[in-house]
Structure formats: structure tokens, C-alpha cells
Amino acid sequence: MAVRRVAVTWAATLIVACGLLALPLVAFAATSAVNIQNSAFAPTTTTIKVGDRVTWTNRDAFSHTSTSDTGAWDTGVVTAGASGSFTFTSAGTFAYHCSIHSFMKGTVIVQAVNTPQPTPPPTPPPTAPPTPVRTAPPTTVVTAPPTVAATDAPTAAPTTAAPSATASPTVAAAETATASPSSSAVAVQLTPAPVTGAGPGPILFAAAALAVVALGAIAFYLARRS
């Protein structure tokens, strides 16, 4: 059963393929009509292409034939009102006649089918040249000079007032100052007056020194706190 179904399928496919192959011949084949009338073929010369068919129709009251001079075809006896046809499969010029009436003659010219020339591909339109791209000039970057960080000025170390030397209670011996020689010819000698007793001078000088030391200490303390 399965084999029969496959065979039927193949047969149907073959018939369809043959029909598709024959379709172009059927679609492009043409039929030219020739009338047999008054004991003549009209038209006398018929021009067709390979694959076309010629049909002769008898318009007379008696019979005729369309017979090739070379025996390529013969329609046989065509009675009154009947027709006979022949399909030409090769190019050439074929003469024919009526076998009943030999004086009746005609010609069929079969032209070869022109092979369609391949259509040239369309010419692409000219390509426009690329538009130049305008490049902006380079931008100069202005670099700011580096900022110098402000450095704190070094803080001067507090100056400690040096204690003043305490004057010795003993008065140094009096020096004798000798004046420089002047433009005058007379030399002048200065003799200091003799010191009599210590007096209050050393005590005041010591008190002043202590006051200076105290003020220096206070200034140093205030400088350290600030």
C-alpha cells in the first residue's frame, strides 16, 4: 500500500514537472491561419517562428491537402469546412502544394527564435567626491603658573635679655686722660678730680640692672604665651 502511494506521488510529480516544462512552449507558441479558397492558399507565403503552428482551413466546396514538397508534413485530405495543422520545430523555408490540385502552391518561412540578450546591469550613478571635513584649529590651552604656597615666616626665637653686669663697688683708679695734641703748641693735661667715698651711685646702678632683668623675664613670658 505504501509502495503504491509512493509510486502515485512520483507519477503526479512527473506529470506536473512535464506540464511546467511545456508551459513556456504553449504560452509563447503562435498559430498562423491559412485559408484554402478558390483553389489557392491565402496567404501564399506565411512567416512564423520555430515552435509556431500553421492551420489550413478549407473554404472551398471540395477537398484539398497541404503537403510538403520534401515530405516534412502532410495534412491529408481536408474536406470542405475542415482544418489541418502542423507545428514547425526547425527553422527554414518550406514549400508545399495540394496533392489533389498540383497547381496550388504555398511557402512557409520558419525563423529561429532569437535568444534574448542579457540585460546589461544598470550603470551606477557617479559617486560624488567626499566633502572635505574642515578641522577646527587646535585650541591653545593657557596653563596658569603654579601657585606658590605661602610659607609662614619662621618665628624669631625670643631674645632673652642678657643680665647686665653688676658694677663693682670698688671705683677703679682714676685714669689720667691725655688730650690729643692740638694745633696749638701748648699741651693741655686733664687730671680727674679725686673720688671721695662710694656714695649712692652703685646702689642705683644695681637696682636698675635688677629692673632690666625683671622686665626681660616678663617680656619673655608674654612672648611664650602669645
Helix-strand layout with pairing:
Blueprint: H1 2-28, E1 31-36, E2 41-42, E3 45-49, E4 53-58, E5 67-68, E6 83-87, E7 92-97, E8 105-111, H2 201-225
Features:
four-stranded mixed β-sheet, 23% helix, alpha/beta, 8 strands, 226 residues, rod-shaped, Immunoglobulin-like
Could you explain the architecture of this structure?
The protein is of the alpha/beta class and 226 residues long. The protein has a domain of 83 residues: Immunoglobulin-like (Sandwich). The protein has 2 helices and 8 strands. It has a 4-stranded mixed beta sheet, with no helix packed on it. Strand 1 and strand 2 form a beta hairpin. It starts with a helix and ends with a helix. The relative contact order is 0.09.
Structural class: alpha/beta
Mean pLDDT, as a whole number? 73
Please, what is the oligomeric state? Answer: single chain
Q: In what range is the share of β-strand residues?
A: 15-25%
Q: What is the class of the domain at 29-111 in the CATH system?
A: Mainly Beta
Total helix count?
Answer: 2
CATH topology grouping of the domain at 29-111: Immunoglobulin-like
Give start-end ranges of low-pLDDT stretches: 23-27, 156-191
Tell me the helix content: 10-25%
Largest sheet: 4 strands, mixed
Radius of gyration: 75 Å
- What is the count of β-strands? 8
SSE pattern: HEEEEEEEEH
Strand order of the largest sheet: 2-1-4-6
